[in-house]
Amino acid sequence: LRANMSIIQRETGFVNGLIAVLHDITEQEKLDEERREFVSNVSHELRTPLTTMRSYLEALSEGAIDDKELGPRFLGVTRNETERMIRLVNDLLDLSKMDSRNYEINPVWVDFVKFFNHIIDRFEMTKERQVTFRRLLPNHTIYVEIDEDKLTQVIDNIISNAMKYSPEGGQVTFRIQEFHGEIEVSISDQGIGIPKDNIEKVFERFYRVDRARTRQLGGTGLGLAIAKEMIGAHGGKIWARSLEGKGTTILFTLPYDPLQEDDWL
Ligand code: ADP
């Protein structure tokens, strides 16, 4: 709290009033602090791949390029790092769009069960690891108003995480439940889990439980922060449940009105 004081003084010199203006600066300071931290995080995240690339490029120009084994391997590293930087910058652009005042989503009516099944199918077709999928989905339509591109991005990110952190032979469970006024969508894995104290932090920008490890897995630390913004823009909530060593469930809700669905159909 900051106070601005003005003394009201008469020409005669007598003080006959005092005006105190109190400003709540804590909120503003918090925002400034967050912004500084954000810029510092972004710089750090960009510097890491850049310095890695510099060392590999140096090694290449000092002769590694002529080595049959090292040449392609080092080029592969620089390419991976470039791709990670592109992902990072794209994520940052997404977040900056969402931070702007006139951020809008383009919702259309979609049968969420069909929409969700399509995304799961795509992962099932292309998965490289031994992970089994279990779908606990209603066998009737559930029409909700969503921005398909944005929600595809959200769900892609959650499923990619579930796959990344799953053990070989693990199971990923997809579920949709209907509640009063909303549906609850959940994706559960049997992976490493998230320590109890970090469960809410994973939705913060750049937060990663294990920096080195997730960087190796190609993450930017922005996926769930973007998901939170996008679900919020749809009028829903997103949260996590997890037991370390046992698994993680990411859940989100979307507004749903079965009566409106009847009108509409
Ligand atoms: P990243 O790009 O690092 O995956 P996210 O925002 O998607 O960023 O996730 C933030 C962090 O939350 C991850 O780095 C990881 O530590 C943790 N996390 C997310 N999903 C899972 C999961 N299914 N199992 C375990 N940890 C997870």
Automatic annotation (TrEMBL):
Subcellular location(s) per record: Cell membrane
GO molecular function: ATP binding; phosphoprotein phosphatase activity; phosphorelay sensor kinase activity
This protein's UniProt keywords: ATP-binding, Cell membrane, Kinase, Membrane, Nucleotide-binding, Phosphoprotein, Transferase, Transmembrane, Transmembrane helix, Two-component regulatory system
Location (main, coarse): membrane
Residue intervals of the PAC domain: 1-37
GO cellular component: plasma membrane
Histidine kinase domain segment(s): 41-258
One annotated GO biological process: cellular response to phosphate starvation
Top-level taxon: Bacteria
Descriptive protein name: histidine kinase
Organism: Lederbergia citrea
Gene designation per UniProt: walK
Shown part of the complete sequence: 344 to 608 of 608
